[in-house]
Amino acid sequence: MTQAPAPATPPSPTPATLREPAHQVSPRAVGFWRVAALIPSVVLALLLAAGYVAWWLSAGTPPWWATALGVLGLVALAAYPVVMPPVRYRVHRWEVTDTAVHTRSGWVTISSRIAPLSRVQTVDSRQGALMRMFRLASLTVTTASAAGPITIDCLDAEQARELVATLTAITGASEGDAT
Amino acid sequence: MSPDEGLPLDPDAGGWQRLDPRNLLLDPVKTLGQFLVPALIAFVGLSSRRDDGMPSWMLPLLVLGAVAFGVLPWLTTSWRVTDTQFQKRSGLLSRTTSTAPLDRVRSVDLESSLLHRVLGLAKVQIGTGVDDDRITLDAISQERAGELRALLLARRQGVAPLPEAVDGESVVAVPPPAPETPLAAIDWSWLRFAPFSLARLVLLAGFVGLLAQFADDLPFLDQEHLSSGWRWATSFAIWLVVLIVLVVGLLGWVVVAVTGYVVQWWDMRLTRGQGSLHLTAGLFTTRSISVEETRVRGVEMREPLLLRAVGGGELSTLATGVGSEGVTRILPPCPREVCVSVGDEVLAEPGRLTAPLAPHGPAARRRSHVREARGALVLAALAVLPVVLADVSWLGWWLPALVLVAGLPVGAAIAEASYRHLGHSLVADPGTASHLVVGHAEAARVRTVLEADGIIGWVVTETWFQRRVGLADLVATTAAGAEKVVVRDVPRDRAIGLADAATPGVLSAWTT
Fold first, then answer.
1. Does ipTM surpass 0.90 in this model?
2. Which one of B151, B267, B303, B459 counts the least CB within 10 Å of its CB?
3. Domain presence at residue B10
4. A138 to chain B, minimum CA–CA distance in Å?
């Protein structure tokens, strides 16, 4: 079997950089994320404290390493709602053009997601009870791939409604089954 | 139910037709088969324990019940093909009608178990790709099944009217089967790859597990026999015992693997025709799978560790809307060259599976090494546990040390091998479809070729560690196959460049 002679250097596209999306989400998102993170933190901290007290009552004073671990856990639980929301807010950005949607999200691990609007299948918005108190809403755009949903978290509720209308109008105009 | 909707295959009123009458034989036998073991156990078991066990007049009753169960589906199921839809009605009390629009039919698979084949029947499964549910006809005659498939595949092909379909009723003989181009057929010299493919090991493990369940009941498997057996065994040299066990195990494995290969891939033929790929194979149960070619977005060649050592590989197609996974194996373990040439045929563009890949650079190599070293450290840490917990004094601290000393070099070797196969390429010759080619290797060396047109989005993920060294994981999302293709640990700027080149225009608003 003769193959076509392989090129000496494998073809690799020219490197490029990706500009960050233009818009930030609503500043109220910081408050929402903080409250949403505080709830599990408080519950876990209470459980930790209860476990420690139970140990104390049943088996006497816990050894120093258990105390140290407990304190470390408490510090982490307290730090999470303080540190995470502003970082997440700074990272989370979005932009919709006539042809594509682009978001960036995360805080320790950051992912950028881009999908052409011609391949978008559904546009959903979601608003939980806590989100409603902050007048926020999330918007999710799905494609035919399970790996490809794109979420813009914590938009201003009014803005989210408008964006859903815009996206629905754009994606409704494209043809084909988007696979 | 107007008469003009009638299926050309059958002149019945409304075109509704039953399953094949031979089901009256098939279904009771199948039902009996399902009932037989529990029924026999109940019968024998009960009557041997007590005299007044299951009365013997129950037996004919059971048989009668099974027959009734078998007849019901035949009486209640009917199907037809209209001009626009395939329809199936079934159910006794609650009638269900399943329909598939003809232009949505993505796959028509035929399957015949040994029993089906004795009776000349085939089970037909029709997939629409919209959801995972497939419409099943179990069973119609093999000729009718072949006709139905040809008809459905021909109708599906398009809005363009088929010459045969133009004048309604005269289509009795269905479009003449288009000449099929053979792509591959089984070559029994491939049997040499069977023992090196470990997929069947799972089956073997299941079998051993089953045996273990019964082992408790075996009379000779108790403490006393076991320990006397052990003493008997250790009276020989221990290494001889180990050697014999190894040889017997190996021979058993070879027999199981070869038998499985023969049973699964007997008379394997891969052909192309009517816009589909057709795969037929099987010694006892013959399967006939079709994949619409316009749905095939790429191929994947896997070379698992052992198979790779002997120059073998496996090939799958990545298609949209085929079952739940979309990854369909179209070749048995076979020589790598066969995989490559069949892959080229399927893609219709040569050289994709052998295209040189751009390596990901020193940072990716370091990450590969760190990952494997971390694995070795974790293993060593786990090896500490038995020492601490169970006080295995004769092993002592040697065990974790040994794991570490052996694990680190092995890990480094694996890391180096994985890095060597890590790479990506965008093959875009003018005038042909461009393909994203991705290679990676852990236990198996995998090369994925995805049509750039099948990419419906991008995800660039960077962990904290990756950001520090400028790497990213680039994920091409797609509706085909496993729904994503990952380019791992690629320098971020090159990831963006690759994505931009593969899907021109999508990223252009943000690239600089």
1. no
2. B267
3. no
4. 19
